[in-house]
Amino acid sequence: MTFCSVMAGVFLTYWGLPFYMGVAAAIFFGALSGFVSGVLVAKLKIPPFIATLGMMLLLKGLSLVISGTKPIYFN
């Protein structure tokens, strides 16, 4: 959820795209992370709990890197 909101903030504030593009970006990145988690579980036979925990830690760190550990303010 954090990663999706950071990506929506990037699309809306940094790139200045319209609101619907920010919402579409949040949905797209949420679906992409769910797809990757599903592939890890289904194809690589990683236990679902481990895949979910790993994806959460990866996306939280990526959110901090993308946002520069600073809040993204919406106008």
Fold blueprint:
Blueprint: H1 2-14, H2 19-42, H3 48-67
From the N-terminal CA to the C-terminal CA, the straight-line distance is: 21 Å
The residue ranges in which pLDDT falls below 50 over 5 or more consecutive positions are none
Order of helices and strands: HHH
Main sheet?
Answer: none
Shape: elongated
- Total of DSSP H or I helical runs spanning 4+ residues: 3
Explain this structure to me?
The protein has 75 residues and is mainly alpha-helical. Helix content is 76%, strand content 0%. The chain contains three helices and no strands. Helix 1 (2-14) packs antiparallel against helix 2, helix 1 (2-14) runs parallel beside helix 3 and helix 2 (19-42) runs antiparallel to helix 3 (48-67). The longest helix has 24 residues, at 19-42. The mean pLDDT is 94.
Quick overview of this protein structure:
Helices cover 76% and strands 0% of the residues. The chain has 3 helices and no strands. Helix 1 (2-14) packs antiparallel against helix 2, helix 1 (2-14) runs parallel beside helix 3 and helix 2 runs antiparallel to helix 3 (48-67).
